[in-house]
Automatic annotation (TrEMBL), chain A:
It comes from Aspergillus campestris (strain IBT 28561). This is ditrans,polycis-polyprenyl diphosphate synthase [(2E,6E)-farnesyldiphosphate specific]. Its EC number is 2.5.1.87. Belongs to the UPP synthase family. Residues 44-54 have a biased composition (Basic residues). The keyword Zinc does not apply.
Automatic annotation (TrEMBL), chain B:
Residues 300-310 have a biased composition (Polar residues). Keywords: Transferase. This is Undecaprenyl diphosphate synthase. GO terms for biological process: polyprenol biosynthetic process. Residues 216-310, 384-428 are annotated as: Disordered. InterPro entries: UPP_synth-like, UPP_synth-like_CS, UPP_synth-like_sf. It comes from Aspergillus campestris (strain IBT 28561). Residues 245-254, 417-428 have a biased composition (Basic and acidic residues).
């Protein structure tokens, strides 16, 4: 803590662009604030092996005092956290009562109607719970989110789940979402749904005639993208491998690697799911996917990232595209440290959207 | 309005009075000393946002706001290093910030130059306290005089150990990642020194037959990443086969993993022959390709590191933050909840990201303390109950998670235990 007098001296110096004080004068100001050099046991080479301290009792008492303060602070902080937690839980329940979707798209639309802006691409970070039916719960959560996005008018939803288990069960997931949507919408105006993951073809089991019938005018459409940890750093590793290979063969010089190139390559993986992957893995590709593929083009950068968890941790989320993404954590700011992911609830979703609408956007200016 | 101004002046006067000042500084010492007792994040990053908004709301000049921001930085660095943080990374200037008004950019540059110039005058103090300054970012975009000041400061402190201050000066994370990819590629496309067979076998600590076996195993179960590789380089394969002299390469190439091909490139290296003996058919293809590659490079004895050895660690090691501990805490002030191209790679694993609704010039121990306490609470709870969420390893498979299910709910008992321990300590 710098005293007022020294601070004024320092600010005078700053105003004159560091010309007022000489180096020696500055050191004189600084010296009282520096810790005793002997306290700093730096450089193991100058090992003084616990040279007898000048004041052993005082040092001991000091460390005891610090230990005591530490425990005291944490007791009080813990109490504070519990109180805040209880308060938030209460607010959360109240919000849950006031804002409930009742599986009616109109109600959801009413909730988001007054918002200044909506994300075009919403991304959510989910985590597996530890119950036995964790996968079923996870799929149900994704389905709920898809229905809410559809109703709110958000065209793209990407779901990040670290282990990538969702990618391995795309057909049942599609079924779950379709069932969920049919509980929100009449069968007459069932919206169109596209579900895909990087390196996987677009999954769309319904035949063409059925699809055109189902995507009735005005009901909108939704694209769901499934992401996992392998789409994060691993993608860069793969890209680097390929580039290194090309460079070794003399087809590319390292100077050719620009941000635009990397951006194009990385974006391609999340936005264009189909052709290459389908061509490569013959057993996976089916006719629908190759027909469907040209239609998919989504904005690679999510506008809003909702983390359903107790604190904001990206947990391996693909790093490239979250440059300007607003982040929102549904958990309390302070509480709920243990336990895994929070329940995916409607009020968390709607709070995230409010938050997004309130935030202002500035691009580095 | 007038009363509030008088009140704030009175408050300032009281805070600035020597006894109160002394008491506050003692309190800070106590708190910092207390923080030291628990686990402390090793690497903390700050986005120093809000200087301009602070200046605007307090009706002072923007440059003045930046000066106050520098004071806040000094305060926070003091708190961080004294509480045991090893590396502090600050986002001082983004490449995007060059778009700001010339006046402001110049003022910021001038400030950086003056501060670092002053820093360089205190060489002995820096030596004694062992702080190391590093600059992360595109130094080539800077003015020559600023560049010189930075280089000098970095040079002077490069031998110091203990604490590191990373200044991200013209920095964006995308640029950093691109640079890392580029450097990795450059490193992997520099031919290794031509090795004579005799010295090579002496030098290499690896068993060649073992490697050959490994490669065979790999080729039987080709790894998943192949999909990307093939997807990205259709033209690569075509052009390769065009220039090749043997027709059979064309057929064999898509099915053989690239690792094999690169093992074969060094004809002087004896491992390739072992491999060829083991897999006669693939060897023909690999051999053909290796001739081909060597022709392309005009360097018949050159051998490359295999790109298959690239991992995410390799890329991490080519980032500006190489050698630093993983990022534990990322704090952004001013209430903006975006990363703004900062530490995208470093911050995407186990970093706790905190957005604070306070302008950077006001940021102080009092805002930092709750963040640190929360972090300590989480970490110490993990130690008591390592299965709880947010563990360092991070990648627990679903099966593991299922096994962990009994312990996931006992939040309250563990907390009680913590309190109990604390009570015992207090009793002591």
């Amino acid at each position: 803590m710098v005293s007022q007098r020294d601070r004024d001296l320092f600010r005078d110096d700053v105003r004159s662009r560091g010309t007022k004080l000489s180096a020696a004068e500055r050191e004189k100001i600084l010296r009282p604030y520096l810790p005793d050099p002997s306290d700093i046991s730096r450089r193991p080479t100058q090992r003084r092996k616990k040279a007898p301290r000048k004041t052993p009792i005082r040092t001991f008492l000091k460390s005891q005092l610090h230990q005591f303060t530490y425990t005291l602070i944490h007791i009080f902080f813990g109490l504070y956290v519990r109180i805040v937690q209880a308060y938030h839980a209460l607010v959360d329940r109240i919000l849950a009562i006031i804002y409930y979707h009742h599986r009616t798209p109109e109600l959801i639309r009413k909730d988001v109607k007054n918002l200044d802006r909506l994300p075009e691409h919403l991304s959510v970070v989910l985590s597996m719970r530890r119950e036995d039916d964790a996968l079923a719960i996870l799929m149900d959560d994704v389905a709920e989110l898809a229905a809410w996005c559809m109703s709110a008018g958000i065209p793209v939803l990407s779901v990040y789940e670290k282990s990538g288990i969702l990618k391995s069960c795309i057909p049942p997931l599609h079924q779950t979402i379709t069932n969920k949507l049919s509980s929100y919408y009449d069968s007459s105006r069932q919206p169109a749904l596209q579900l895909f993951a990087p390196h996987h073809p677009v999954y769309n089991p319904s035949s063409d005639s059925e699809r055109t019938q189902s995507s009735a005018p005005g009901s909108g459409s939704l694209t769901v993208l499934l992401l996992s940890a392998t789409d994060g750093r691993e993608t860069f590793v793969d890209l680097t491998k390929t580039l290194a290979e090309m460079s070794q063969n003399g087809k590319l010089s390292p100077e050719d690697i620009t941000m635009e190139l990397v951006d194009a390559e990385i974006s391609e993986i999340t936005t264009q799911p189909s052709q290459a992957a389908a061509a490569l893995s013959d057993d996976n590709s089916n006719d629908q996917s190759s027909i469907e593929s040209p239609g998919v083009s989504i904005k690679p950068e999510p506008d809003l990232l909702l983390v359903f968890g107790s604190f904001l941790k990206l947990d391996g989320y693909p790093p490239w595209h979250i440059r300007l993404t607003e982040m929102f954590c549904t958990g309390d700011k302070i509480s709920n440290i243990s336990g895994c992911g929070e329940a995916v609830e409607y009020q968390g979703f709607i709070r995230g959207l409010w938050h997004y609408a309130g935030a202002q956007m500035r691009f580095g200016r | 309005m007038a009363t509030s101004m008088h009140l704030s002046r009175l408050r300032k006067w009281i805070v600035a009075s020597p006894p109160i000042e002394f008491a506050i500084s003692k309190l800070r010492d106590l708190l910092v000393g207390a923080i030291r007792q628990g686990p402390v994040p090793q690497h903390v990053a700050f986005v120093m946002d809000g200087n301009r908004r602070f200046a605007r709301s307090h009706r002072i000049e923007t440059v003045e706001g930046h000066n106050l921001g520098f004071e806040a930085l000094a305060r926070i660095l003091e708190v961080s290093y004294r509480s045991g943080v090893k590396v502090v990374t600050i986002y001082a200037f983004s490449i995007e910030n060059f778009k700001r008004s010339k006046f402001e950019v110049d003022a910021l540059m001038e400030m950086a130059r003056v501060k670092l110039g002053q820093l360089a005058q205190h060489g002995d103090i820096l030596d004694r306290y062992g702080a190391q300054v590093r600059v992360l970012g595109r130094m080539d975009l800077l003015r020559p005089d600023v560049h010189a000041a930075f280089t000098k400061a970095v040079e002077m402190t490069s031998r110091n150990g203990n604490c590191v201050l990373n200044i991200c000066f013209p920095y964006t994370s995308r640029d950093e990642i691109t640079g890392a990819v580029r450097d990795t590629v450059a490193e992997y496309s520099t031919p290794l020194q031509p090795v004579h067979a005799s010295t090579g076998s002496v030098r290499s600590p690896f068993s060649e037959s073992h490697i050959a076996l490994k490669i065979q195993a790999q080729s039987q179960s080709p790894p998943e990443p192949q999909a990307t590789a093939a997807e990205d380089t259709p033209s690569d394969i075509e052009s390769g086969s065009e220039s090749s002299t043997r027709g059979e390469v064309e057929d064999d190439h898509p099915s053989s993993p690239p690792g094999k091909v690169y093992e074969g490139t060094g004809s002087s290296f004896s491992s390739s022959t072992t491999l060829h003996l083991a897999e006669a058919k693939a060897a023909a293809a690999a051999g053909g390709n290796s001739d081909n590659d060597n022709d392309n490079d005009n360097n018949t004895s050159g051998k490359f590191q295999s790109p298959e050895t690239i991992t995410s660690q390799t890329i991490s090691d080519h980032l500006y933050t190489k050698g630093n501990p993983p990022l534990d805490l990322l704090i952004r002030t001013s209430g903006v909840e975006r990363l703004s191209d900062f530490m995208l790679w470093q911050g995407n694993e186990n970093t706790e990201i905190v957005f604070l609704d306070v302008m950077w010039p006001e940021f102080d121990l009092w805002h930092f303390l709750p963040v640190l306490l929360r972090w300590q609470r989480r970490i110490s709870k993990q130690k008591v109950n390592p299965e709880a969420e947010g563990d360092f390893e991070g990648d627990s498979t679903p099966e593991q998670q299922k096994q962990q299910s009994p312990s996931s709910t006992d939040d309250v008992p563990s907390d009680d235990m913590l309190l109990h321990n604390d009570a015992k300590l207090k009793g002591l």
